[in-house]
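Sample 1 of the test manifest.
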Amino acid sequence: MRKNRFENRIIFEILQVINEDKCTGSTISRKVNVPYTKFKELEETLLRKDLIQAYYDDGHIYYRLTEKGKKLLNEYLKFKELMKMYGIEW
Amino acid sequence: MNDLEYLTIGSFIISLLPFIILPLKIKLGLLKYTILYIFLPIYFLLIYLYLYSHSDIYLSYAYLVETLFFFNIYRSYIMNELFLVALPLTFLINDFSLIISFYFVTFNLVEFTKKKINEKYGSNFILISTIFFWFSILISIFLVFEYITYFSLYSYLFFIVGSILFIIPAMNAVKFYEKK
């Protein structure tokens, strides 16, 4: 697992993965590179804050972004792009 | 009011543009975004106060703010707070402030160029802007040590051009966002 990542950044990475693909919890935790237990912890926060929605399909739980989640992700991407122009990694 | 004061007020207004054009709605980015741009309007305000009052104290503050501006970018590149302890000294000795600024801006220029070549990211505006800042500080150092002149028009003009180029990516980010 990559070290020194702020929890906020992990949250944005989760939002990005959910936005890009139809994913289950284990796929997300693998793509974002966090333990599944950590993902479940963050998932709870994201659901509570109404940033993601969970839904059943083919016997699995999948996730999708809510409107609020999409707006937040867009803001993050805008910021990330801006920092890249300054040569600052984010 | 003379031409230089008009130019300073114009630069002050332009340096406020990032706050008007691109208000971020996330707390995470907002702090970094604010720190990135906030030193420029403060710098121009202090220069205006210096030109208006001819009080050297404003010029001392302007030097300090200039150092903080370069330090913030330096810190973002290296993630090191080592020089933070040296910053109060810059308030006491302006020459020291210029030397520290020169170190930061040289480091930023080298680091940015490396990223531009190796990792293929970073805006050309920032590269040119940093070169202008570098020349601005270099001219200042030369004039302080050679003629004991603490405010020079040439150095200031280089700084203004550097500042304008520095905020252009903020406008480009708006375009990127609209495309998305």
